[in-house]
């Protein structure tokens, strides 16, 4: 029986192809891994810088100019004073003439209250009831973050560098766009510029209504950058807030006393009056 010859050419050809491709393949994987590591390092450093540049404060007070433009287009503006005790409560006192208060709003961790001195009425609602009625997961922490130009996570009191992985990241020419969502399906997007300053916060509900909150005119307040101009817009409504004489870590008086004889109304009644 003749010995059957086995051609090695196809086998060697296969081995040569594998050997020639394998190093290139390994290099491609290594390069891709290196790029991923570099991107992760850049994101981590950016997030750390964003956190470090966030305003550090225990209390904040400021004189502000507020201008509200409802869908009707009839602009209402007034001077006001903002007082905030971090992680506790905030108050906005509207004082259009000679420092005489006409309206006061207080938001705390568990309630929202307001006094309308011009019409001798007030409202007081729990955050839990408002959330249940409006189907929102919006909290005091969210509002506090919006007013102090800070990144936030729904349902979390403060954001730390360890929370970087809870955001989706997108590199854009202007900087980074970060996004996350809450249990109700609300979407949160944050745009930070290349200097790690938070420039825009967007909150979109299930009905695709988007609250956009923009920050401009950054100035130094006790060695920290703070946006002196904020513009909030929701559908055809706009709210402009211009800060002046910002002070941090000074004592703030947050008394809230409802005068006797004032009529209790709903928040919707007051909002409707403001929109007319």
Characterization of the model:
There is one protein chain. 25% of the residues lie in helices and 39% in strands. Residues 1-26 have low confidence and may be disordered. The longest helix is centred in the N-terminal third of the chain and has 44 residues, at 9-52. It contains 4 helices and 14 strands. A hairpin with a 5-residue loop joins strand 10 and strand 11. A 14-stranded mixed sheet has the order 7-8-9-10-11-12-13-1-2-3-4-5-6-14. It is of the alpha+beta class and 276 residues long. It has helices at 9-52, 127-134, 140-147, 267-275; strands at 59-69, 76-85, 89-94, 103-108, 111-116, 121-126, 168-172, 175-181, 187-193, 198-204, 210-221, 224-234, 237-248, 263-264. It is globular.
Whole-Å distance between the termini? 106 Å
> Structural class, from secondary structure content?
alpha+beta
Please give the radius of gyration in angstroms.
27 Å
Silhouette: globular
Taking strands numbered 1, 2, ... along the chain, how are they ordered across the largest sheet? 7-8-9-10-11-12-13-1-2-3-4-5-6-14
For the biggest sheet, the summary is: 14 strands, mixed
Number of strands: 14
| Spans of at least 5 consecutive residues with low confidence | 1-26
The number of helical segments is 4
- Overall mean pLDDT stands at 85
String of helices and strands: HEEEEEEHHEEEEEEEEH
- Strand % is 35-45%
Portion of residues within helices: 25-40%
Give a quick precis of the structure.
By secondary structure, the chain is of the alpha+beta class. Helices cover 25% and strands 39% of the residues.
């Amino acid at each position: 029986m003749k010995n059957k010859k086995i051609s090695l050419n196809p086998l060697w050809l296969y081995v040569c192809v594998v050997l020639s491709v394998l190093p290139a393949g390994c290099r491609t994987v290594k390069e891709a891994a290196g790029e991923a590591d570099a991107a992760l390092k850049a994101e981590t450093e950016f997030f750390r810088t964003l956190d470090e540049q966030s305003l550090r404060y225990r209390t904040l007070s400021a004189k502000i100019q507020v201008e509200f433009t409802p869908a009707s287009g009839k602009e209402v503006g007034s001077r006001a004073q903002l007082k905030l005790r971090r992680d506790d409560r905030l108050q906005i006192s509207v004082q259009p003439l000679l420092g005489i208060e006409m309206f006061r709003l207080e938001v705390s961790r568990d309630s929202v209250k307001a006094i309308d001195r011009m019409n001798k009425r007030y409202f007081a609602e729990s955050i839990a009831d408002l959330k249940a009625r409006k189907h929102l997961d919006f909290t005091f922490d969210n509002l506090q973050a919006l007013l102090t130009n800070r990144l936030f996570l729904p349902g979390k009191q403060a954001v730390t560098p360890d929370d970087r992985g809870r955001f989706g990241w997108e590199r854009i020419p202007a900087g980074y766009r970060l996004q996350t969502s809450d249990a109700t399906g609300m979407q949160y997007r944050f745009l930070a510029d290349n200097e790690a300053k938070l420039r825009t916060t967007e909150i979109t509900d299930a009905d695709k209504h988007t609250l956009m909150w923009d920050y401009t005119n950054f100035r130094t307040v006790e060695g920290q950058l703070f946006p002196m101009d904020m513009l909030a817009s929701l559908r055809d409504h706009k709210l402009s807030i211009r800060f002046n004489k910002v002070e941090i870590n000074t004592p703030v008086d947050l008394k809230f006393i409802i005068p006797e004889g004032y009529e209790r109304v709903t928040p919707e009644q007051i909002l409707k009056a403001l929109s007319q």
